[in-house]
Amino acid sequence: MNDKYQSPLSERYASKEMQYIFSPDMKFRTWRRLWIALAETEKELGLNITQEQIDELKAHQDDINYEVAKEREKLVRHDVMSHVYAYGQQCPKAKGIIHLGATSCYVGDNTDIIVMTEALKLVRKKLVNVIAELAKFAGQYKSLPTLAFTHFQPAQPTTVGKRATLWIQEFLLDLEDLNYVISTMKLLGSKGTTGTQASFLELFNGDHETIQKIDPMIAKKMGFASCFPVSGQTYSRKIDTRVVNVLAAIAASAHKFSNDIRLLQHLKEVEEPFEKNQIGSSAMAYKRNPMRSERIASLSRYVMVDALNPAITSATQWFERTLDDSANKRLSVPEAFLAVDGILDLCMNVADGLVVYEKVIERRLLSELPFMATENIMMDAVKAGGDRQELHEKIRTLSMQAGANVKEKGLENNLLELIAADPAFPLTLEELKAKMDPSQYVGRAPEQTEEFLAQVVQPALEAFKDELGMTAQINV
Q1: Secondary structure class of 84 (helix, strand, coil)
Q2: What per-residue confidence (pLDDT) applies to 286?
Q3: What are phi and psi of 112, to 5 degrees?
Q4: Which of 78, 208, 226, 281 is catalytic?
Q5: How far, in Å, CA of 333 to CA of 246, rounded?
Q6: Are 333 and 243 within 8 A, CB to CB?
Q7: Across all residues in the chain, what is the average pLDDT?
Q8: Stretch 253-260: mean pLDDT, rounded?
Q9: Contact 208, 143 (CB under 8 A)
Q10: 369 touches 415 (CB < 8 A)
Q11: What distance in Å separates the CA atoms of residue 264 and residue 282, rounded to the nearest whole number?
Q12: What are φ and ψ of residue 380, in 5° steps?
């Protein structure tokens, strides 16, 4: 095991559930289900296929003789025909009707669609649980004032919970896109070498009406609403583009979330979970690095860049098909899913264990609040008979002086003391300090958070209530 390359996506990041969806076992079991669906459909439409043959195929649906297939592939250099051969060895009565009228893409492409659909559903389940964890966090801290930033410079206050709604909203947009993509997934069906169903025209003696029933029947047997109405040999590679694009969008949202957590951890305001025996640095024993958030960012960048692969592959397909998509698809599509799976597990884990340091938040906010309170102070002075323009200039001058004390001299912010000492402002220091209640400056942040959670988030979660309650297992 240690003498060859192993993908970190499997070894470190992706869950067992997602790894199984893209496993050889899932792939080849699905091939056999598709062969059974095709044989049943052909029997039901009048071909000379017996129930005994169908029963034989079903009896060996899951006990795949992999060694026989591998040995055959060494000889014939064709994976589909090797598995047709292996299945036929187990099903001698049905051997002659396996894969009847189909081309390799019947099992290959339909399986890809089935696998991606199952993987999208697992992604959706995890995304919903990330949203649920963040919603709990937002609700808990909906009224806790904190310093907001624009350009990472101090701006008007918000609340910790309101900030979390910004993360949730982006994930909800991804959930909308994800639901749409899942709703549009269709099978290729069985359309033959160039998509014309010419082989079935031969099998069914030119009976177009019967042939029109094949794809809908196969789709129903495989749990899909329909097949693509037209195709070349393959389903349009535009589908892979659509699928991986929605994964890249989820990755972008996760990256934004993780960046904010990393910045907040630097400020010592909010930290990701840090386990009792976790080591933050090999050199600096005191460090608590945001390694999970950093890993989210790292994997997210990979997925966002990976989305170029299906787009370029789709753009460069020739006519009814080429084979330059195959090697790329084997890498780019599964790896996008495995990485997003790991990303969402990490997001779930971080969101569930966020630690908020309220005193640090309060101290930083109070250090900046005097600057933000100047407009209210100025308005009170105007009400007492002062000149707005003159007061504005005085406030500006005193703010610059207080800022210099903080930045150049390392002193505390003494703006309130400077204002109290200026006779143009008829307010005592005690009266000014009374205006330093942070909750007076957060606007409608608590109400916005409540409304958003009740009116937007809860209905979205209610639609997937049976999938809630997941916990994420982080490997390293």
Answers
A1: helix
A2: 45
A3: -60, -45
A4: 281
A5: 12
A6: yes
A7: 93
A8: 98
A9: no
A10: no
A11: 23
A12: -65, -40
* Pick from 35-39, 347-351, 382-386: least confident: 382-386
- C-alpha distances (whole Å) from 378 to each of 188, 327, 414, 415, 472 are 69, 68, 17, 13, 51
Residue of 222, 161, 212, 214 whose CA lies nearest to 187 = 222
Indicate the Cα dihedral angle 40, 38, 30, 338, nearest 10°. Answer: -140
Pairing of strands 158-159, 145-146: antiparallel
pLDDT given for residue 282 in this prediction: 47
277-298 pLDDT tens trace: 454 554 544 457 899 999 999 9
CB-side neighbour CA atoms (13 Å) of 15 = 21
- At 195, the amino acid letter reads G
Give the DSSP letter of residue 474: P
pLDDT at residue 144 above 50?
yes
Buried b vs exposed e over 429-445: b needs ≥16 C-beta within 10 Å? eeebeebeebeebbeeb
Q: Residue 461, SS3?
A: helix
281 part of the active site: yes
User: How far is the C-alpha of 342 from the C-alpha of 468, rounded, in Å?
Assistant: 18
End-to-end CA separation in angstroms for the chain: 19
Tokens at 354, concatenated: 């966020």
| Cα separation, 160 vs 264, whole angstroms | 11
Record the tokens describing residue 353, joined without a space. Answer: 């264990």
More confident residue, 187 or 275: 187
